[in-house]
Design goal:
It is a single chain. By secondary structure, the protein is mainly beta. It contains no helices and 11 strands. It is globular, with a radius of gyration of 13 Å. The N and C termini lie far apart (37 Å).
């Protein structure tokens, strides 16, 4: 499975961005897709994930009410709509997928990782 993320960029605080991630390859190999992020000098952290068959989502407390994760089954694409962005949201965002139906927040439970896309929020 290959994951191709896009949509990162520079935005002012309070602004919005939408990240996209498209999966290709053995699309029957994964059941959950999501996002992690890593800010400079910080550990990688879970952002959100969605289960493909029923749309069940899980989001980190730090982004609840601001970020929304969704998917387009026909396009094998997951989206991360980020609103009310803050400087502390600045990070490299990684698209992930796992071969399990459990919507996990642990990075070591994800089998596939995209290349990352940089989001920079200026104050």
């Amino acid at each position: 499975v290959q994951l191709q993320a896009s949509g990162g960029g520079l935005v002012q605080a309070g602004g919005s961005l939408r990240l996209s991630c498209t999966a290709s390859g053995r699309t029957s190999s994964w059941y959950v897709m999501g996002w992690f992020r890593q800010a400079p000098g910080k550990e990688r952290e879970f952002v959100g994930a969605i289960r493909w068959n029923d749309g069940l989502t899980r989001n980190a407390d730090s982004v609840k009410g601001r970020f929304t994760i969704s998917r387009d089954n026909a396009k094998n694409t997951v989206y991360l709509q980020m609103n009310s962005l803050k400087p502390e949201d600045t990070a490299v965002y990684y698209c992930v997928a796992r071969s399990s139906v459990v919507v996990s927040a642990r990075d070591n439970e994800y089998d596939y990782w995209g290349q990352g896309t940089l989001v920079t929020v200026s104050s």
